[in-house]
Write a structure and sequence with these properties.
With 355 residues, this protein is of the alpha+beta class. The protein contains eleven helices and 14 strands. The strands form four sheets. The chain has a six-stranded mixed sheet with strand order 10-12-7-13-11-14, sandwiched between helices. A four-stranded mixed sheet has the order 3-6-4-5, covered by helices on one side. The N and C termini lie far apart (77 Å).
Length: 355
């Protein structure tokens, strides 16, 4: 077989730019270095991230918790707006707030960024957002992967995913077995849509209403695009602060499926969580999606968070302390309901939303 000449096939000709990938790594190093913890060993560039597990010796029986997630079709909003340094906050929030539900402290994350074409500054901006999110969550970003998939993704298309690991003492594990009749539901406000339901939202605002992202929306107080790209609130440190300050029995991270479905995941079979819609007013974006798309309330509630990003289930006597702790941390929170003996479903939504 003869040797190929300059006209032969190459990785670059197939659409993969190794040099651009290397430059992206150099650009992101500054941000990754900021997302660290004392237990992290080494620096970016190795084949694996290293975390000193001897830090777990202070635990009597440490349980490792693991979670993985992405941000769904919210990446399409970032792509359309050309804003790439906030989507990482969404990724971190989706992962670490699943970890903290069981009481686990998030320790570290890894990320996966897949692009149609590597634009180094763009990839670095995505990782910058992930690193900033890790700082907000109190965990380290110990590694990741950037993959270029020409032919499968368009040049401007991308997706992100991540995995996280946390730790909790076995006898402090939170969950359904701790919940009792009379417990109080403390709702923590979301920052907006977070990262769920964007397939419905995009269908409503783009396909049905024909709105543009730069449209000024008076009821939102900003453009449509700015509202849709609002980063997911990261609750991990707030939830951990609650567990140290008062008797917390469980958390529920309100993501895909909405409040009732996610709360039901931590309610034991013999109890019912009764949620009073009248205890809060959903942000205008939820009303907007409902009215523009003529979306029924049941459909909205099973798709969007409706203004609640996290629920803490606490002992009745701990409710005031929990609210005070969250207020001190700048988290808007309120009593949204109680736990009773099982009457019907695991979760019952009552009343109408406050106007």
């Amino acid at each position: 077989m003869s040797e190929t000449t300059g006209g032969g096939a190459s990785y670059a000709a197939a659409g993969v730019d190794i040099e651009a990938g290397d430059r992206a790594v150099q650009l992101m190093k500054e941000w990754v270095r900021k997302a660290t913890r004392p237990e992290v060993v080494g620096s970016i560039g190795g084949f694996a991230g290293l975390f000193d597990a001897s830090a777990l010796k202070r635990y009597q029986r440490p349980l490792l918790a693991s979670a993985t997630d992405g941000v769904g079709t919210k990446v399409d909003i970032a792509r359309r707006m050309g804003v790439y340094d906030t989507i990482g906050h969404d990724l971190v929030g989706m992962v670490v707030d699943d970890l903290v539900v069981c009481g686990a402290e998030p320790l570290f994350m890894t990320d996966y960024v897949c692009v149609g074409k590597v634009f180094p500054e763009r990839v670095a901006a995505i990782v910058k957002g992930i690193a900033e999110g890790c700082v907000l969550a109190g965990c380290a970003l110990v590694g990741g992967e950037t993959a270029e998939h020409p032919g499968l993704l368009g040049q401007d298309e991308f997706d992100v995913a991540g995995a996280g690991t946390g730790v909790v003492e076995a006898d402090q594990l939170l969950g359904a077995d701790r919940i009792r009749t009379g417990d109080v539901l403390i709702a923590m406000a979301s920052s907006g849509l977070h990262s769920n339901g964007y397939s419905l939202v995009r269908h409503v605002v783009f396909d049905r209403a024909g709105w543009a992202l730069d449209r000024e929306v008076p009821e939102l107080g900003r453009t449509l695009g700015e509202e849709l790209l609002e980063p997911t609130r990261i609750y991990s440190l707030d939830c951990l602060a609650l567990t140290r300050a008062c008797e917390v029995h469980a958390f529920s991270h309100v993501t895909g499926g909405g409040l009732a479905a996610n709360l039901a995941r931590v309610v034991p079979d013999h109890l019912t969580a009764v949620v009073d819609r009248g205890s809060w007013t959903p942000d205008p974006v939820f009303t907007l999606v409902g009215s523009l798309g003529e979306v029924t309330r049941p459909e909205l509630e099973k798709t969007l968070n409706m203004g609640v990003g996290m629920i803490a289930v606490v002992a009745a006597e701990a409710a005031d302390v929990a609210l005070a702790v969250l207020a001190d941390r700048g988290v808007d929170a309120w009593v949204a309901g109680t736990v009773t003996d099982r009457t019907a479903e695991a979760v019952t939504m009552t009343g109408d939303y406050a106007s």
